[in-house]
Amino acid sequence: MADQPTSSFVVLANRLPVDRVTGADGEPGWRASPGGLVTALHPVLREHDGVWIGWPGGELDDYSPFKADGLSLVPVELSSQEVEHYYEGMSNGTLWPLYHDVVAKPAFHREWWEAYVEVNQRFADLAADAAAQGAVVWVQDYQLQLVPAMLRERRPDLRIGFFLHIPFPPTELFRQMPWRDRILEGLLGADLVGFQRPGGAANFVRLVRLRFGHKTHRDKIVLADGRAVGARAYPISIDFHGLEALAKTSAVMARAAQIRDELGDPPHVLLGVDRLDYTKGIRPRLRAFGELIADGRIKVEDAVFVQVASPSRERVDQYKEVRADIERWVGRINGDLGRIGYQPIHYLHNSFPRNEMAALYQAADIMVVTPFADGMNLVAKEYVTCRYHDTGALVLSEFAGAADQLRQAFLVNPYDINGLKDSIWAAMRAAPRDLSRRMRTMRRQVREHDISAWARGFLTDLDATDELRRSA
Ligand code: GDG
Predict the structure, then answer these.
(1) CB 3.0–4.6 Å: which of 116, 208, 368, 436 could bond 90 by disulfide?
(2) Residue 404's CB: how many other CB atoms inside 10 A?
(3) What's the CA angle centered on 117, arms 145 and 228, to 5 degrees?
(4) Can you tell me the distance from the alpha carbon of 407 to that of 439, in angstroms, rounded to the nearest whole number?
């Protein structure tokens, strides 16, 4: 493979977009895995006929490139200690909490950092071997922030883009990181660094100016050698048409009706869908709902809250703690407020197929999305996509990137429980005409700014920075 690399488009992400499964016949195979990143990039890669380099999520007998679901995949081998140090440690125990407003306390360990450097180098080497002359390489997310510089070192001919799916923190928080300058230098290896929100791009530009003294223009950094690095917001989106079509199938419609029926067909069905993560603000939304019942504003027979919490990062301590915390709250609320035949919260700690998710979105009158910090939040965009009758209400945290685009949602501060209660209450009582006006506008926004528009926007700008680079 190293002899004659042929890929003109290469994506690098921590995970391959597939999970290993054993079929009913006992034969091993691959299945598309859930998660924002995978959901977002799958259609883009198919369209560009590219190669995807990533960790398969477990050990393989053979690490040769392979094809699955029409995609060319290059698996990256990680030892169990690297999984512990690079992935569970540095990525999910250090960077994830640090970049999400230190909602949980980040841990800094030198051996985690060393594994992070080593694994980033492995990814960069595989990309250097796979990319054709002048190819476009698109590096994804916080697990791989050193790759752009490592790759440029070996292959200055490549056009390198980087996209951060999570928030980029303000200077004051980023400065805590012992290896802060190494991370910034890593990112500056790219021609274009993309963020979810303009605030993230501004934080990054400000940091490199303060720490390195590089000249900066609004969304551009000029390095000492004259090379320019773009830093801009590209709010990610979803495959609007694909999901809307799924929501309109008779099977999904029938399942949505069945879900409502099974819930006892109450006047109000509220829904939360998240990876079980401490950033997602599951607790405040359950508390707000519980208090609305306890206050007597909502009767227990009039509303049901369905909370899907898909299992995530289960070996990391902070994730074990958040699960225990949520389950305590569910138990307390159901125990205190439930009656025979009436259970306020239906808590599902499970992953579901896409069509079941679409049916849940269709069955819900109110979608409640309340992260403390979130790069974008695709669930909010998926909900409005499925509401093709322009019905339903979205309660959305202002700390989700999606709040920039879905301005007609009932916007909330998840730290303010009374405000959250008032917004859920307002959404439950809003006039159908008001709701449909809001929903129509939000649906138009997602339709016109879908996942292909996102990828096109980034890749077009990446092309333009290449011209800048050649003329510098
Ligand atoms: C990161 C950033 C950013 C969830 N449970 C199931 C399931 N899901 C799907 C949802 C949605 C995706 O997973 C979750 O995406 P989010 O955007 O909400 O959140 P993260 O996983 O934290 O994603 C985020 C994203 O990257 C993209 O840039 O928006 O801010 O944190 O698509 O539907 N899907 C299925 N079964 C489940 O049980 N099929």
Answers:
(1) 116
(2) 15
(3) 35
(4) 10
Q: Which residue CA neighbors atom 30 of ligand 1 most closely?
A: 375
Ligand 1 centroid distance, CA of 382 (Å): 10
**Tokens matching residue 24:** 């009913």
Closest approach atom of ligand 1 to CA 353: 39
| Residue owning tokens 């599951």 | 282
Distance CA 139, CA 14 (A): 9
| Confidence check: pLDDT of 442 > 50 | yes
State the Cα–Cα distance between residues 325 and 318, nearest whole angstrom.
10
Q: What does the pLDDT look like over 114-135, one tens digit per residue?
A: 999 999 999 999 999 999 999 9
Rounded Cα distance between 319 and 82, Å, is 19
pLDDT in tens, 296-329: 999 999 999 999 999 998 888 899 999 999 999 9
CA angle 341, 346, 352 (to 5 degrees): 135
Buried b (16+ CB within 10 A) or exposed e, 107-120: eeeeebbebbeebb
Residue pair 159/8 in contact (Cβ under 8 Å)? The answer is no
CA dihedral for 257, 276, 240, 33, sign (positive or negative)? negative
The rounded distance, in Å, linking the Cα atoms of 282 and 252 is 26
Q: State the distance from the centre of ligand 1 to the C-alpha of 295, rounded, in angstroms.
A: 33
Parallel, antiparallel or unpaired: strands 7-15 and 66-68: unpaired
CA distance 435 to 273: 21
379 CB within 6 A, ligand 1: yes
Which atom, in ligand 1's list, is nearest to the CA of 196? 28
Question: 247: CA distance to ligand 1 center in Å?
Answer: 17
Confidence of residue 17 (pLDDT cuts 50, 70, 90): confident
Q: Are 372 and 161 within 8 A, CB to CB?
A: no
Domains, the chain, with CATH or none: 7-236+453-466 (3.40.50.2000), 240-448 (3.40.50.2000)
Q: What are φ and ψ of residue 92, in 5° steps? A: -100, -15
Q: Does residue 37's CB lie within 6 angstroms of at least one atom of ligand 1?
A: yes
- Averaged pLDDT of the chain: 93
Mean of the pLDDT values across residues 200-217?
95
